Amino acid sequence: MATNQETDLREEFAEPSDEVRLDPGIKSQEMLLNMGPQHPSTHGVLRLVLNLEGETVTGCTPVIGYLHRGIEKILENRPVMGGIRYMDNADYLSPMLNEIAYAGAVEQLMNIEPPRRAQYIRLLVGEMQRIASHLVATGTYLMDLGAVTPILWAFRDREGILSMFEALGGSRFNVNYMRVGGVLHDFPKGWLRECEAFLDQLEKNMVEMEQLITGNEIFEARTQGVGYIDPQQAIAYGLTGPMLRASGVNWDLRVNRPYMAYREVPVIMQVRQEGDCYARYRVRIQEIHESIRLCRVALDKMPGGPISTRTPIALRPPRGETYFAIESSKGELGIYFISDGSEYPWRAKIRGPSLVNLQILPELLRGHKMSDVVAITGSLDLVLGEVDR
After folding, report:
1. CB 176, CB 182: distance < 8 Å
2. How many Å apart are CA 334 and CA 340, to the nearest integer?
3. With contact defined as beta carbons under 8 Å apart, do 107 and 180 qualify?
4. Count of CB atoms situated within 10 Å of the CB of 188
5. φ, ψ (nearest 5 deg) of residue 369
6. pTM of the model
7. With 70 as the cut, is the pLDDT of residue 364 above it?
């Protein structure tokens, strides 16, 4: 005989009878839901104010400013050379690339050309930084969708890159390695050999990672056809980086407007046509493989010679303005300077791709279910230090 407890459970979870079913014509009341600013899947202090009708998102208002780094004003109150260290805090997953953009802007304003060896060093460490950023993007994205193993593997490989950065510049995270006119140090003894061994192991690890993720039916169901962006829409919103190339737009500053050593080292652009969350994941994985290839090219072609150009201790760029942009891990990272001829920038402005790419999020979420909000937001690969700069 069934116990009283079993009877109560059956009654609680039983299908409602026809007499108590809701009329399908009845519309549920719209609900306002705050997601964040400490939600674990936003990877930072991003607040999303969601309008819901049942499980369907009808509107979204991103609210930013909780981090508020104030980096641009800090740059305006520091000597030109002193600003490099603060660039590490913008996209804190790509500090090397931030520093390259900053140094390139000052060099363009002062008409300085770094030595070829310095340019190749920048290409090498920049592509390693791109790999590290994409590893974090992939690992955390899969964790958002319920998989734990990928983030452990991704951080394991990222640790190898950070350890080499520490040997190169003295710090794992805020590296402060770039200098106007070149780089801080040359490679320590055995560093290049260690780098080659790491790239060999990383290639094997990436094959294992893709076997775990790509083709997984749960992952594909959560990402394929979700968060679609057509090419015209991507261009209209000013998207760049993997967000743009995943929608079939052939645009990569390393190819279309090559700078520094990229003028000598051709880049194979990674493009997908699907335009959904799955395509954005695939572009980042493909770019990891392309960055490994570019690192090998830099190692093979690494020229000799000096690592920096002689520059005065107190840099005083001539009066004028400049804009210098590179292809960061998230898209076009641009630095705009106005100089009044002093040691301090009169105006400093950062074009952070995370902020620009965030603009399309309300459009992407509209009409999707609540469970898709995490999948779509994670596919943008936002870093809030670059949004609230």
Report:
1. no
2. 20
3. yes
4. 11
5. -85, 165
6. 0.90
7. yes
